[in-house]
Amino acid sequence: MRRLLPLLALLFAMPLLADEAFTFRVIGIDCETCAPPIIKALSSVHGVSRATVDAKKSTATVYLAPNTDREKIRAAVTNAGFGAVFPGEKEVGFVSPPESVLRTLDIVSHPGTSKVDIAGFLAPGKVTVVDFYADWCGPCHVLEARLQHFMAGKPHLALRRINIGKWDNAAAKQATREFRAEALPYIRVYDARGKFVEAVTGGMWDEVLVAIEKAEARR
Q: Does any domain span residue 28?
């Protein structure tokens, strides 16, 4: 017992290493419902004991164990379809992942010059996001980049892109007449059995995530 006393005294004298609070900006928060998926992504990172999100300020705070790799924090946020801007950094917006990542994703594009057989265009056995887009549509590019990051590491997801030109081609007529699309971005989400789940107009990311989750739940 006497031998243990000096050791115990030494242990109590050592400063306790508390988790460090780290706050950063999150790009792409549309509303309060964006907070849960961000918290879920951050909480999955090894070394994170707690995570909170302030949707009004578009910030997240994580409590990190010593020596936690902060780049893993960035990766978790990015793979959830959001962006992370750490203190001292400049915001660069949403950009597509590297070509090495894009090559692993199930993405197919249609020129839109003819009516699309949606059932035949879907990826068999996968949750498929059908994205009606246009090259001139800035928000469409943002949504596509977010979907690309979100799809990374999720082989059960597929993206099918349909170009509607300037609302003047066959695919545009199909989108407006058959699907009642009124604005871009416009996506339609289908489950792994090819059944329609939900449409989202405007690219609201929280609504996109909900639609994909509903499709995944049907697998």
A: yes
Tokens for 170, please give them. Answer: 């066959």
**Residue 205 near residue 82 (C-beta atoms within 8 A):** yes
The amino acid at 66: P
Could you tell me where the beta strands, DSSP code E, fall in the chain?
20-27, 48-54, 59-64, 83-85, 107-110, 127-133, 157-163, 186-190, 196-201
- The reported pTM is 0.87
Confidence of residue 219 (pLDDT cuts 50, 70, 90): confident
Residues making up the chain, counted from first to last:
219
Looking at the structure of the chain, the number of domains it has is 2
Q: Does 53 map to a domain?
A: yes
Give me the domain span that covers residue 42.
15-85
Query: Do 200 and 106 share a structural domain?
Result: yes
Phi then psi dihedrals of residue 127, to 5 deg? -70, 125
Residues 43, 118, single domain; the answer is no
- Are residues 107 and 189 located together in one domain of the fold? yes
Distance CA 64, CA 175 (A): 47
Give 174-204 pLDDT, tens digit per residue.
999 999 999 999 999 999 999 999 999 999 9
* Locus of tokens 């994909």: 212
CATH number at residue 73: 3.30.70.100
Find the angle CA(182)-CA(131)-CA(122) to the nearest 5 degrees.
Answer: 125
Q: Which of 132, 111, 130 is nearest to 121 (CA)?
A: 130
